[in-house]
Model the fold of this input.
Amino acid sequence: MKIVIIGGSGLIGSKVVAKLGQHGHEAVAASPKTGVDTLTAAGLADVLNGASVVVDVSNSPSFEDAPVMQFFTTSTRNLLEYEAAAGVGHHVALSVVGTERLAEGSGYLRAKLAQERLIKDSAMPYSIVHATQFFEFVKSIADGATVDGVVRLPPVLFQPMAAEDVATTVARAAAGPPLNGTIEIAGPDRFRFDELVRQALRARNDPREVIADPHARYFGAELSEGSLVPDGDARLGAIHFADWLREPVPART
Done:
């Protein structure tokens, strides 16, 4: 089965491509690096020719409100239009746990919610995977929350997961029948947001102080106790944060 992975050169997409390939699927990575641009629709018709499934794990190059909204809405409209023309039978999209709860205060999550509504309102059979934050992004989260060398984060519940586990669930969704609904996935352990980031920085010998600040914002939104964790039952990843921390940091190229 031919499965096209939009964003297939990125952190999650490259792992999804590998996992699907290992299970005998024709997994095709599509991104600007391969000549496919969902914003302009360049390359879409060619790459979707003969595809049964499209997986969208792409992300906006900008997190500013207007560009991020344009990216997710325009790209999704183009994908759905070209998928329908190509006879694609399943659209899989990766989104974020808490999108609906936090959309009012976050331009990024408003854009993700708009993306989800376009998918649900289309005639395309679909599956949406809501994931919690990734272990791999903890440092960038800390960087974004740093002011004058101090990291300020709200002490709310936090249940991040490894990119490897995210990719496993997305690949399974792509290989299976459309859900026409949403599944939630999260890490196997819950923490306080500030506590986990403190652990991560300490493990990487980062000297920054982490302060619990109930009013610190995340992607522009003020968080409540359960904003970042699943509402109810969620599929849990297998990789624990403590084990992930012990893995060597990949060398930059």
In short: Residues 69 and 111 are 5 Å apart (CA to CA).
